[in-house]
Amino acid sequence: MMESIKELSKEEYLLKGHIACAGCGLTISLRLLFKALGNKLVMVVPACCTSVIPGPYPYTSFAVPVQNIIFEATGATASGVVAAFRQRGIKDVPVVGWAGDGGTFDIGIQALSGAAERETNFIYICYDNEAYGNTGIQRSGATPYGAWTTTTPTGKKERKKDMPFIMAAHRIPYIATACPSYPMDFINKIRKAKEIKGTKFIHILAPCPTGWRYDTSKTVEIGRLAVQTGMWALFEIEYGKFKLNSPSDRLIDKAKRKPVKEYLSLQGRFRKLTEDDIEKIQRWVDEDWERYRKLALNQYV
Q: Is residue 2 very low, low, confident or very high in pLDDT (cuts 50, 70, 90)?
C-alpha cells in the first residue's frame, strides 16, 4: 500500500487539451485512476461527461483504450470484454467500467446488477457528481435532498439512493467509497480492487463546480468538507466486512464531525434550503453515522 503521492509514477495518461470544465472533480479522479493502474487497462464508458471530455474524433486526450457505449450498458459491455479476454487467455488487463451517477443509479443499474449476480471479474467505478451533468444538470437518483437541478428548481424532495449498500446486497467481494480530495485513499482502493477476483464497486464523490454552483478553485476543499461533515463517509466492505477509513474512522465521535451547514453553505445548489431542511439533513447524517458505528463494531454487513 502506498503512503505518499510522491511514490506515484510521473507518467500521465490524461493528456492536455481535454474539454472538461475548470475545477472538474471527475478529471482529477480520472488522473488518479490512471496513476493507480497505468495505461494497461480497458475502460468501458457510457454516455456521460467522460465520453465528451476527451475531445472530438479523431483526437483524444485519453492515452488508454476506451470503449464508448450506450447509456445503460456499462455492466453488459464490460461483461462482454471480460468474456473475450477470458476466451483469449488474457489475464493481466483489468476491465474498468467508468460511469456517472445517472448511468449507475438509474439507467445502468440493471446491467450492473446483472454483472454482479454473474460475479463478473471487473472494477465498476461510479463517479458521482449527483446529477446528469453532461445533459444539463438534471436530477438523478444520486441527487441529494434539497439540491437544485434544472428539473428540481425548488430543490429535490427525495433522499439520495444508498448505492454502496445496494451493491452490498449483491454479496460482491469488494465495495469502497472514495473522494479525489483524499488521493492516496482513492489510489490504494483501486489497486486493492485490481487484485480481488469478482465484481468490485467503487463509489467516488466527484464535485462539480458547474452543477453544484461553487467557485472552480474550491473543488478539493468541497470534497474534504463532504468527508469532514460526514456527508460522505470513506469506507470499505471487503467480503462483507465493514471498515471505516481515515479520516472517517475518527468521525464516529459526533463531536469531531463538522456541521453539515459548512458544506451546504458553499454550494449554490443548496441556496433554497431552509433552516428546517438543514436540521433534517444533519439528523439524517447523524443517523447514518450511528449505523456506521454499529457496523464498525459488528464488522459484517
A: low
Sequence length of the chain is 301
Tens digit of each residue's pLDDT (9 = 90 or more) over 134-169 = 999 999 999 999 999 999 999 999 999 999 999 999
Sign of torsion, CA 4 8 14 16?
positive
Give the sign of the dihedral formed by CA 7, CA 98, CA 101, CA 198: negative
The strand pairing partners of 202, in sequence order, are: 125, 176
Phi, psi of 243, deg, nearest 5: -145, 125
Q: β-strand 122-128 against 199-205: which pairing, if any?
A: parallel
Distance (Å, whole) CA 13 – CA 42: 13
Helix (H, G, I), strand (E, B) or coil at 143: coil
The one-letter amino acid at 37:
L
Question: Which of 301, 7, 71 has its CA nearest to residue 169?
Answer: 301
Exposed (0-12), middle (13-18) or buried (19+): which is 289, by Cβ within 10 Å? buried
Q: Is 161 exposed, middle or buried (0-12, 13-18, 19+ CB in 10 A)?
A: middle
Structural domains in the chain, sorted by start: 14-298 (3.40.50.970)
Q: Which residue has the cell 487539451?
A: 17
